From TrEMBL:
Organism (species): Nocardioides astragali
Recorded topology in the membrane: Multi-pass membrane protein
Ranges of residues in domain Histidine kinase: 237-445
Domain HAMP: 177-229
Reaction(s) this enzyme catalyzes, per UniProt: ATP + protein L-histidine = ADP + protein N-phospho-L-histidine
Protein EC: 2.7.13.3
Annotated Pfam families: HAMP, HATPase_c, HisKA
Regions crossing the membrane: 156-174
Group of enzyme by EC: transferase
Subcellular location: Cell membrane
SUPFAM superfamilies, sorted: ATPase domain of HSP90 chaperone/DNA topoisomerase II/histidine kinase, HAMP domain-like, Homodimeric domain of signal transducing histidine kinase
Designated name of the protein: histidine kinase
Length: 453
């Protein structure tokens, strides 16, 4: 607003100067026309300077801020009527300006003590007769009224500007408060979040950049909360499941009789079995913890027909069953072949544990509706509908056969691998009996950004 006011002031000042110059040029032009014309009384060119000047003064109608003075023989002889009076003629600044312009003529701006800014223009006229002295037309323009009007306009502009600045300031404070409210909430929420509680979220309101930032921060908090939850779950699971085998190890070591070779051999086999069991448990827990890492998957193009047949060939070593190939999908897909192989073989291993020799275990794949399906079905005990969600959780177990020493992590690993691919695990009844466990994955392009838990 200050810059706008300055520009307006400069432009208006230039306009005033231009208007005054136009008035002066107009008077000079009119005077030159009369000077080059004929005397209306004689019909001849003007021979008397004073006659020329007086006739011009009589015919001219001056503006309110303008005054004409005629000089003959260096003396002021007559002036046009005006609202300012004759006092300007006695002003020392005016008299000095007239003296300076006596030879060359022209315009000079003076600062009068009474009238402030005054433009003085002198037009010299020489008489054609040598017996008569020369004369001059003096044009006086008073700029004080125009300048005062501009000053009053700028004062009004200043008052209006201050009022609007106050209004804009109040509006800006109100709007800034509303805009910064999410940032304040963000700061307070961040201050309240502790290492043991990352469940707090910032309220999302509106649809602007601040809301987008809030949404991004909430997403970051969600990922942090998920990561810390996974860490705590890993520690809780590891501590809980390792407590029993460690207790067994300690108890046998404390009661071990070093003098009895038979007991040493029996205890050694028992402890090695517990160590192997702990190693499998730790390996499964570490795998589950890694599923949330961005480098968990290494996707690549995989031939689905070759993958399905390879899975069946590898699964045959898991047990004496009637292994069958249902069908295979055509073409290639983008997925992590190693992790998918691990998941399907885990399903096949579960199928072996819940079937008897001679039972059917089948593996197949299909591609339909933008999805890729990989499944394992068997003719064993099946999974009760009430247990299907529980067995997909960590350490969740349904009805198992005697001798099954699993930890309840197998299907949770399968689900984690499916989730990392953006898919899911579905458990259904097989026909005529048994379980049908299927991994369903999106049929993604190679450039697709993979989801992260």
């Amino acid at each position: 607003m200050a810059s706008a006011g300055l520009i307006v002031y400069v432009l208006e000042s230039q306009r005033i100067d231009s208007t005054l110059n136009q008035q002066i040029d107009q008077e000079i032009e009119e005077f030159r026309v009369l000077e080059g014309g004929l005397d209306p009384e004689t019909g001849e060119p003007f021979e008397d300077v004073e006659r020329l000047l007086r006739l011009f003064l009589e015919r001219n109608v001056t503006d309110d801020d303008e005054m004409l003075v005629i000089y003959v023989d260096g003396q002021a002889r007559q002036s046009s009527p005006n609202q300012f009076g004759q006092a300007i003629l006695d002003d020392p600044a005016y008299q000095q300006a007239i003296d300076r312009l006596s030879r060359r003529g022209g315009t000079e701006v003076i600062d009068s003590a009474r009238y402030h800014e005054v433009w003085v223009t002198r037009v010299n006229v020489e008489d054609v007769r040598s017996t008569t002295a020369g004369g001059a037309l003096v044009i006086i323009n008073y700029a004080d009224d125009e300048r005062s009007e501009l000053d009053r306009t700028m004062q009004t502009y200043g008052v209006v500007t201050l009022i609007f600045l106050g209004f804009i300031t109040l509006l800006a404070l109100w709007r800034a408060g509303r805009l910064l409210a999410p940032l304040t909430a963000l700061r307070s929420t961040a201050a309240e979040i502790g290492a043991t509680d990352l469940s707090r979220r910032i309220p999302e309101q509106g649809n602007d950049d601040i809301t987008a930032l809030t949404r991004t921060i909430n997403g970051m908090l969600e990922r942090l909360d998920s990561g810390f939850t996974a860490q705590r779950q890993f520690l809780d699971d590891a501590g809980h499941e390792l407590k029993t085998p460690l207790t067994v190890l300690r108890g046998h070591l404390e009661l071990l009789d070093h003098g009895d070779p038979a007991e040493l051999a029996e205890t050694r086999d028992l402890l090695l079995d517990e160590v192997d069991r702990m190693s499998r448990l730790v390996g499964d827990l570490i795998l589950l913890a890694k599923t949330r890492r961005p480098d968990f998957l290494v996707p690549g193009e995989v031939d689905l027909d070759h993958l399905t047949r390879s899975l069946l060939a590898k699964a045959r070593a898991l047990g004496e069953r009637d292994w069958q190939l249902d069908e295979t999908a055509a073409g290639t897909a983008v997925l992590d072949e190693q992790k998918i192989t691990q998941a399907v073989l885990q399903l096949a291993d579960n199928a072996v544990k819940h079937t008897d020799p001679g039972d059917t275990v089948a593996i197949g794949s299909a591609r339909e509706g933008g999805r890729i399906r990989l499944w394992v079905r068997d003719t064993g005990d099946g999974i009760a509908p009430a247990d299907r969600e529980a067995v997909l959780e960590r350490f969740g177990r349904g009805r198992v056969r005697p001798g099954d020493d699993g930890f309840g992590l197998g299907l949770s690993i399968v689900r984690a691998i499916a989730d990392a691919h953006g898919g899911e695990v579905v458990i259904e009844d097989a026909r005529p009996r048994g379980a049908h466990v299927e991994i369903t994955l999106p049929d993604r392009a190679k450039e697709t950004t993979w989801p992260r838990s």
